[in-house]
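Repro case for the chain-ordering regression, as requested:
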Amino acid sequence: QVQLKETGPGLVQPTQTLSITCTVSGFSLTSYYMQWVRQTPGKGLEWMGFIRSGGSTEYNSEFKSRLSISRDTSKNQVFLKMNSLKTEDTGVYYCARGNLDYWGQGVMVTVSS
Amino acid sequence: DVVMTQTPVSLSVSLGGQVSISCRSSQSLVHNNGNTYLSWYLQKPGQSPQLLIYKVSNRFSGISDRFSGSGSGTDFTLKISRVEPDDLGVYYCGQGTQYPYTFGAGTKLELK
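-- result from build under test --
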């Protein structure tokens, strides 16, 4: 069955870089878009961007200058990297398949010194 | 950006009752390809959002026919009939027509 699981640090210091891995099973990354959505206390659900089945990316301009999405199809993994973190980036980060039909459990990230 | 406005913010319902949630977008959600990419999600307490309805009125796999979506252009509605305890949580609408994709602020469904 389709499964997605995010792993990442629970705590990141301000100005540092956030790295989250989404490991998937039950489908191929070469057949589906993979999206990243976060949920913060301040802004609720926010779409961050996606990587297409062919490997190209699209980003929310809100994050574009500091966000990168990539993947390793051989490992069934998708990666999110976001630099210059601020306290407002605290929230739960989700990866989701395609048209957001399946979501991971999410990873809570706290940005604090 | 397309602003998604959901009403009401919260809703109290009796088990077995029926409710409607409204979602309005600041711009038409009709894509150049003719599709309207408006979806509905339910986030149960402590869980990630789950897809209920896509492209306005299509139920996702395994979703009960008690859930129905309707609307067009900028005005959309989710109806839930014969409400069950497992339906409680926060409902979100979201659009995938125009970048950046955006979501409503949510409607919390609670028991009366």
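Ordering looks correct now. The CA atoms of residues 37 and 49 of chain B lie 17 Å apart.
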